[in-house]
């Protein structure tokens, strides 16, 4: 099919889908925030009548002992807690199955997601499989295919990036096919989200930067896409303002509790925005770089983001200009084109200042056609992007990310 006709069909799909998306009432988790707020969770879990929880996390958190105090507090009030720490970065179907087995073996009736995006997504899918035992993970792929509500799910993020504590999505890896896919359902939004900055104080700088840029990508893609609403725009703007103000400072000084708290809030705001207004090509490409090479999601987003902003600028210049003003980069009376360019340059400056590479070390020329095909299969027409991209354009963009390419502009 000729590209002009494809574009017309995609835009028709967007026009039909937008009012339907805006009608969906997305659940919002009850929010508990502030330093030490995780100590409030045991009594809330008890209030929900949960007798035994499965705490889903990863071995890094287990080694650091971050969840030890919570486990002890739960047991002191008579709530059993079994720890499943088999979650890998980019959680796999096998991780989920192992978690379901642990949930069933220990006769749990609630789940705590404790960690970054991977434990969050894995916990959501463990809950989905536990409450829908006859439906395998692959049958949940896509949108709104989970029939029964999850067991009570309580989310405790230890990074400020994914926003998974308030989203309707979980991302799953299929190593056999070297791909990632999303599961989307209103049923997988956690009931409670605990934003405790004390749990984030020990994050190394490179995790702080990549997760922060992940949250920034969520906010920007929600804002410049075609499904935005006053609610999503407001939350995206709040997220961008905070991230511009605080991310680089926390990268340099990870002990700043107030700024850590601000970034946790920004991640949550960005999550509220993109779970309703959706994402775009940055994520489509990043998901597939992660699926094929295991590139960490936030890092992939950070690398790809300025390139997509360059590609889309002409069709979202006024929105980028508005974000520039929100982010303190200029005033409303200035040229829209200048403000938009300043915004994109700010993103590049942040990457440079936080040692984010300009290329993907694992990327190989021979994989680019397949990567582009997979990214566009994910993005077209599901993501309401400001500028539509075809196979040739996507391949050209990916080639800019090759490690052999000198790209001082980012």
Question: Your description of this structure?
Answer:
The protein has 410 residues and is an alpha/beta fold. Helix content is 54%, strand content 10%. The chain has 15 helices and nine strands. It has helices at 3-23, 41-47, 59-64, 68-76, 93-105, 117-131, 137-140, 205-224, 230-252, 257-277, 281-293, 297-326, 336-353, 368-379, 391-399; strands at 30-33, 52-56, 80-84, 110-115, 142-143, 153-157, 169-174, 179-184, 192-195. The protein has a six-stranded parallel sheet with strand order 1-9-6-4-2-3. Strand 7 and strand 8 form a beta hairpin. Helix 9 packs antiparallel against helix 10. The longest helix is centred in the C-terminal third of the chain and has 30 residues, at 297-326. The protein is globular and about 60 Å long. The chain starts with a helix and ends in an 11-residue tail after the last helix. 51% of the residues are buried. The model has no long low-confidence stretch (mean pLDDT 96).
Descriptors:
single chain; 410 residues; alpha/beta; six-stranded parallel sheet; three-stranded mixed sheet; 15 helices; 9 strands; 54% helix
